[in-house]
Write a structure and sequence with these properties.
Layout (H helix, E strand, L loop, with lengths): L1 H12 L8 H9 L4 E4 L8 H9 L3 E5 L3 H13 L4 E4 L5 H13 L4 E4 L1 H4 L2 H12 L3 E6 L20 H6 L5 E5 L4 H10 L6 E4 L7 E7 L3 H10 L5 E5 L3 H13 L4 E4 L5 H13 L4 E4 L12 E6 L6 H8 L9 E7 L1 H13 L4 H19 L4 H7 L23 H4 L4 E3 L1 H13 L6 H8 L5 H5 L16 H13 L3 E3 L7 E3 L3 H5 L6 E3 L4 H7 L14 H18 L3 H4 L2 H10 L4 H4 L7 H18 L1
Parallel strand pairs: 1-6, 1-7, 2-4, 2-5, 3-4, 5-6, 8-13, 9-11, 9-12, 10-11, 12-13
Antiparallel strand pairs: 14-17, 15-16
């Protein structure tokens, strides 16, 4: 079995070796057993069902909610010489009928289908006939976390996928996800009747992604500083509102970036065109709400930026996971402030969800805020949420852990300061002003501002008026944000976002509990210092012209076939070609990512480009 799998891996996919647990998963499923696979984005999940489908008789049925991206996934397989197709609502009647005939004739290796289509009586009948004919090799249930009612991508149709096991109990099933905390993992197994399936849990770590969080100061300028360090790179910028998406896209475009907006309120045709440009052109930035992105398959996204706080740590992990799927250096950068936290608290309280759901969403938001405010290694905090312990590395001179060496807290260790006196002033001012104002107004009182609003409420006569002039407004914003994060202040989410004391505030006000907070770093210096290297930086300068020539060849081939460039070759493949300069197709066959299909289709053009540009 392993020899056969190894042969297909090399011959079809162009890879000499498996990664991580891929080999064990492929062998297990190809032998006819069920599996639940938890593997990070970019870890090679697709191969875990594609290869067993090629090893087993019949067609592999892939259930995927990603209608917009099935075409690109199928095209990537066809480039490898795999007989693949998809069935979803984007196909016209004639094309859908042709795919159905291919299914019944046994002319497909893999068929991608949306859960809504799969569950129709018509498709289940087709599947029955296919199974009686050439057979069904396996069922792959991708994005399996969609089955979780408490997850961020719940799809009710996923609950009904148990019908696959009930009707065809002998056909192996493999459920896959990149985003599931331990409770969600248990729910997937229960809901999909995979309790007895073997679980393969890979590390959720994405070591090539550099994580950084900064306090919101001038968000547009901070974002521009960050994006300027990625000029010419593909990236995604996430915003909370549609209005902010459009404003941010326009702002980046004004400053010379190819930035496009994407949200559910944009005309469907324009939205599809913008997504197509992002997938098929080099260096395009999409500014989006979370309506954009589940399962984005583009491997060369060099950064994901959040200019507003996401709703949960799971959502944040999934969104940042769209960066660096090719294994090359990538950035996950977030800029947030207390206003984001207030807004999200209000959104939770004002939703029509039940009390249990609201409590869960508040807990998820608390976990994300804890990640943002932590002084520990970001990876340790992030992975702990998924039940994974990240082993710390060496300690710094101050004794603090420097675990990953590739996040802001490891690269620029934050400083703590004794903020007990500042916290007492802040809490006292919140109390004396009536516990109904937001941080901006309370800061104005502390700093002795002579504003009309302060005079209107008589707050210039408070004992706390002007007692905070020793700290600038930016530092005070950091103090209030962290007091909320640490539970010493709470947001009146049902009202207008005013701040009020909590039970734990009393000990601080009475001097029984010290308060240590992290110092707020200067944003522009921090952003510049944390930029990740570009994917091409590992090349020797002498190889860069050939690398660019190969990218141009790839772009031309992609335009001719109307497919994304990464479907032809990944950057890592082009870089290896540029470094090794193969002079024959035999030598080219030894490059990672070039199987027999791509060698026969593009080998002569690649060799010619190496000879000309090299």
């Amino acid at each position: 079995m392993q020899t056969s799998a190894q042969d297909v891996l090399q011959r079809v996919f162009g890879h000499a070796t498996f990664r991580g647990e891929q080999a064990a998963i492929v062998e297990h499923v190809a032998a006819g057993a069920d599996a639940l696979v938890l593997m990070p984005t970019g870890g090679g999940k697709s191969l875990c069902y594609q290869l067993p489908a090629l090893l087993r008789d019949g067609v592999g049925i892939v259930v995927s909610p990603l209608i917009a991206l099935m075409q690109d996934q199928v095209e990537a397989l066809r480039q490898l010489g795999v007989r693949a197709a998809f069935l979803n609502s984007t196909l016209d009647g004639g094309t859908a009928a042709m795919v159905e005939r291919q299914l019944l004739a046994g002319d497909l290796d893999l068929l991608y289908v949306a859960p809504e289509r799969l569950l129709t009586p018509r498709f289940l009948s087709l599947l029955e006939r296919a199974h009686e004919g050439k057979g069904v090799a396996l069922f792959a249930i991708d994005e399996a976390h969609c089955v979780s009612q408490w997850g961020h991508d719940f799809r009710p149709e996923y609950r009904e996928l148990t019908i696959l096991h009930e009707r065809w109990p002998q056909v192996p099933r493999i459920a896959l996800t990149a985003t599931a905390d331990p409770p969600t993992q248990r729910e997937i197994a229960e809901r999909l009747q995979l309790d007895r399936a073997r679980r393969f849990v890979s590390s959720f770590d994405r070591p090539n992604i550099r994580y950084a969080v900064t306090q919101k100061d001038n968000a547009k300028r901070q974002l521009l500083d960050f994006v300027d360090g990625h000029r010419g790179d593909a990236g995604i910028v996430y915003c909370l509102s549609r209005r902010k998406v459009e404003q941010t896209a326009a702002f980046l475009a004004e400053h010379g970036h190819a930035a496009l907006p994407y949200h559910a309120g944009i005309d469907a045709g324009i939205r599809a065109a913008n997504q197509r440009r992002f997938l098929r052109e080099e260096g395009v930035i999409v500014v989006a709400t979370i309506a954009f992105g589940m399962g984005i398959d583009k491997p060369d996204v060099r950064f994901v930026a959040h200019v507003d706080l996401p709703k949960s740590i799971e959502g944040y992990y999934q969104e940042t996971g769209r960066a660096g799927r090719d294994g090359e250096p990538a950035d996950a950068w977030m800029c947030y402030g207390l206003g984001d936290l207030v807004l999200l608290r209000q959104m939770i309280e004002q939703s029509e969800s039940g009390e249990e759901r609201k409590r869960l969403e508040h807990r998820k938001l608390d976990a994300l805020v804890g990640y943002c405010e932590s002084m520990r290694c970001r990876r340790q905090v992030l992975l702990a949420n998924f039940g994974e312990e990240y082993a710390p590395g060496e300690s710094g001179a101050d004794g603090a852990e420097r675990a990953c060496g590739n996040c802001d807290n490891c690269l620029q260790p934050p400083e703590a300061w004794d903020a007990t006196e500042a916290a007492q002033k802040a809490l006292s001012c919140v109390y004396r002003s009536g516990q109904r104002f937001g941080a901006a107004h309370v800061i104005d009182i502390l700093r002795g501002s002579d504003s009309e609003k302060i005079r209107q409420f008589g707050h210039d006569r408070l004992s706390t008026y002007g007692v905070g002039t020793d700290l600038d407004a930016r530092t005070w914003r950091g103090v209030f944000r962290q007091l909320v994060a640490h539970g010493l202040l709470e947001v009146d989410a049902e009202g207008y976002g005013g701040l009020r004391l909590t039970e734990t505030s009393r000990a601080v006000l009475k001097g029984r509990q010290p308060v240590m907070l992290r110092k707020v770093a200067a944003p522009r210096e921090r952003t510049r210092a944390l930029r990740a290297a570009s994917a091409a930086a590992e090349l020797a300068p002498a190889d860069l012209p050939l690398f660019e020539a190969l990218r141009e060849l790839r772009a031309q081939l992609a335009r001719d076939q109307n497919v994304p460039a990464y479907v032809i070759f990944h950057d890592s493949t082009l870089r290896e070609i540029a470094a090794r300069r193969p002079s024959s197709e035999d030598e080219l066959a030894g490059i990672g990512g070039i199987g027999a299909g791509k060698l026969s289709r593009y080998g002569s053009q690649v060799i010619a480009t190496v000879a000309t540009a090299g």
